[in-house]
Amino acid sequence: MSAILQTRNLITNFYTYEGVVKALNNVSITVRRGETFGLVGESGCGKSVTVRSIMRVISAPGKIEGGQVLFFRDEAKPDEAEDLLQKNEADMQALRGDTISMIFQEPNAALNPVMTVGEQVAESFLFHRTASLARDAVARMQDEPGAYGLSGRLFKSFLQKAAGQDPRLPMLKIADRLPLLRRWRKPLLAEALKRSVKIIGQLGIANPEEIIGRYPHQLSGGMKQRIVIAIALACQPDLLIADEATSNLDVTIQAQILDLLHQLKKTTIQSILLITHDLGVVAETCDRVGVMYAGTVCEVAPVRALFEKPLHPYSAALLNSVPKLHQKGELAAIEGSVPNLVTPPTGCRFHPRCDKALEICLQKNPELKRMAQDHFVACHLY
Amino acid sequence: MKTEHPKLREFKFTLYRIFKNPAAIIGFSLLIFFTVVALAAPYLAPPKYAHAPYRMPHKGFSPTPKAPSEKNIFGTTSGQYDIYYGVVWGTRTAFKIGLWVVCVAGVIGIALGVIAGYYGGWFDEILMRLVDIMWSVPLLVMAMTIVVAFGRGLNNIIIALILVEWRWYVRVIRSEVLKLRDQDFVQAARLMGVSDFKIMWRHILPNSIYPVLIMASMDMGSMVITASFMSFVGLGAPKGFADWGQMVALARNYIVGPPDDPLRYWYTVVIPGGCIILFVLAWNLIGDALRDAFDPKLRRR
Amino acid sequence: MAAYIIRRLFFLLFVLFGVSVLIFGLMMTFSPERRAAAYITSPQQAKDIPRIVEQLGLDDPVYLQYLRWVGRVAQGNLGWSLVASSTVWDAFWRYFPTTLELNLFAAPLVILVGIWLGTLAGVNRDTWLDHATRIFAIVGWSLPTFLFALVLLMVFYGYFNIFSPGIISDSVQLWLADHPDQFTRYTGMYTIDGLLNGNLRVFADALAHLVLPVITQVIVVVALLMRVMRSGMIEEMGKDYVITARAKGADFRTIYHKHARKNALIPVITVAGQLVALSMEGSIAVEVIFNRQGMGWWLAGSATQLDMPVLMSVCLFIGVVFVVANLIIDLMYAAIDPRIRLE
Hints:
The complex is a heterotrimer of chains A (382), B (301) and C (343). Chain A has a domain at 117-200. The radius of gyration of chain A is 23 Å and the shape is elongated. The mean pLDDT of chain A is 83. By secondary structure, chain A is α/β, with parallel strands linked by helices. In chain A, α4 runs parallel beside α11 (221-233). Chain A has 15 helices and 12 strands. Chain B has helices at residues 6-20, 22-39, 41-44, 83-119, 121-135, 139-150, 154-181, 184-191, 196-233, 244-251, 266-294. The two termini of chain B are 16 Å apart. Helices cover 70% and strands 0% of the residues of chain B. By secondary structure, chain B is mostly helical. Chain B has a single domain, classed as MetI-like (MetI-like fold). With 343 residues, chain C is mostly helical. Chain C has 2 domains: 2-81, no CATH class; 86-163 and 217-336, MetI-like fold, CATH 1.10.3720.10. Chain C has helices at residues 2-27, 32-37, 49-56, 62-74, 88-123, 128-142, 145-159, 170-178, 190-196, 200-237, 240-248, 252-270, 272-289, 295-304, 308-336; strands at 80-81, 86-87. Chain C has a two-stranded antiparallel ribbon with strand order 1-2. In chain C, α10 packs antiparallel against α13. The termini of chain C are close together.
């Protein structure tokens, strides 16, 4: 299987009052086409920062300082990669939500409280499908001339232009900035809302026509998360990044959402990068897993291999800390605490908590080594 | 660094935030300057009448201001009052107005607000309805009406401003207390049998005081503005009292000089007016820096 | 919603009652003789004072006097204004349009400039633009209105000799007095009346007289709005939904103007009442300095002449305006924030 996304030695730092937080230290992961890749680790280990760096939506005072994020757009040409970190902001905007999209941890906070959910889903179409929306609108106006009322009639030529080759015509851009001319987009919004109804319906929400007129606070947590997923799936992305998408939901709803992702995986989305701290979710859904600790990747393995025979001491400790059905005695917690990333430990960042630490662990940061087919570990023990 | 007490660390960070802000440094410098002037007033400008140091000395009664000279370094204003003397002693007047109003209104407002917010019930209800009524008339209008009722004069201006301004402190602190009242640490203290007074004093007040401090700092400025405007329209101290607002009023007829030199009497307005602006600016800069340092929403590490 | 408005109107009655009791109580601190003095016009009439006290019942128990006063007010008899030398009711209709005119010009400017600059500063945090805006805001906030107005007069009227104080030039005033049939006072506002009468000379002249007052009013009021808008934008830009929008592919313009701004306006609305109060206070100083015969000028004049009946009426009137303004603000609140339900 070919890769769809690959990060190479990604470095992200946060410039804060306490000092420079070295949040990501040479993170390299690969997500392959058609797989679900899980990224696990304790909270604060840099999982979210990794995906936000991939999408380049790190907010100040964070800064991506090095490495590459390679995106393989075309399946047929596995050697042609684009480095997302080299792209300009406009290209990134065209890419976000269209080819790569993301769903978030906290559905309450991820939706804008003062916009209807319909509008918020519709935006995905409006940003990336202007031309096709305009074509729909023009076609509909041919069937019924009065379809969009005044704004349709007044701005017909605008719509036809937008339906043509380039929806980012300078003329339309200028129109977007002018108070009354801006209304040429109204028919597009109407079409986008229609598509929103369809996609919300597909995600298992009853009477979507009514739901799109509601505000986030009027919906339940599970519904909100479905809306967030609808926003991400609207343009049928090649890669979906799910950042703790189920962590803050009730267990039953969590199961529903996981089921939904599972189904979608079969039908619409090719690849998923799933971030979670829940090893149960990983075992259930992922094909391969990467384990992160304090801004570094310590082990990458197929899910079975990791659960059966974790190589890195941290992975082993992490798996041991999960209660099992036939648990005997106390749960094994990991000694010590997560290091302060302003002054991370020298060498392997895990060594102060590692019971197998060697002399070299204090001095040298281990590289990812290939141990078996598809099984990589960054540890001096091997 | 690890061994530092978290409170100390937090305090250091707050200081860092305050003094990282150049505005705060300007504000504190101005404030120190004014404080020194106010304290040293008897030395900077020895009073002519020992029993009434706030009365500005004047030679003659000519209404036309005189330009700065060696004798009167800032010139004289209408009525031949010495501007330098007035400005120096006016600093004391400004501090007097600001400190009295803010301290008294603040203490009344905080006490009532904490009690109303903590206990709720009928006391809260009555107090808040009273505040609602007070709220429906803007500060300046209400204060002017009160001064008219009590009679002109600086002390009555201070009383009027206290009577109107406490409503702000009640509102601000009460909403803070309401947020804190049902939090776990307060509930825990209550369950442990800590007395209500002690809970209010030790737990609620320290946690709700920052917005009040910020407001108090800004208020020092705005109260001086309001008082000086009332002095300006003639509700303040008698003529000749060292008060910046009144000095501007004395200059009012001289803002436009003779046609050949329209800005001839600039010093009569600009010097006392500049003092008001700088004094207010000092407090506002400090208040703004405090807000930046304390506001969890704007605070960023 | 309708129930809410009705409840608020009852609240208005309650507030009016409260304000009237409060102010009546203040007036009662005057001795009956001093209050009687308000009814005489020359020193020769001083010997009539005991008779006036007797006649008007200024000695009666407080509640009787209050009821009598409320009865009079209910009949539309608000008393006599010394400053205006007319009844308070007539004076009110003469002065109110002037103040309204000032604020009709100033308020839209305040809102536009404040929201625009506040947004700019908030999204460009810690850039020179942000610092400049903050300095502007804090200096504007520290400027006493009357001083700023005086300095503007000094420079523009004194030095450049443009923009004179007053409402309208003497020449235009004379022309208006000579041709009462050619100019109808529809609204009492010279600019709008000028337009309605098609008389551009009056319009332009009145507008020129508004320039400095409006600038003063805007500078003083806009600072607060700008500051709240700025911190609102900063807060909203850190929220998760902004990241959602970015992950959707939104450009920054859309995020600022469509996503964040509407949320940032919510704290602005909570200070809108304060903005209204600030405008009212600003109007007093502006009208006093620029010699515009409006409500603020009248109020300040009445205060210096210790004209208590007028002060009471003005306070009541301002109370009404303020409560109604707050009702409108609440309705706006509900319109912007869908989470608020007016019940």
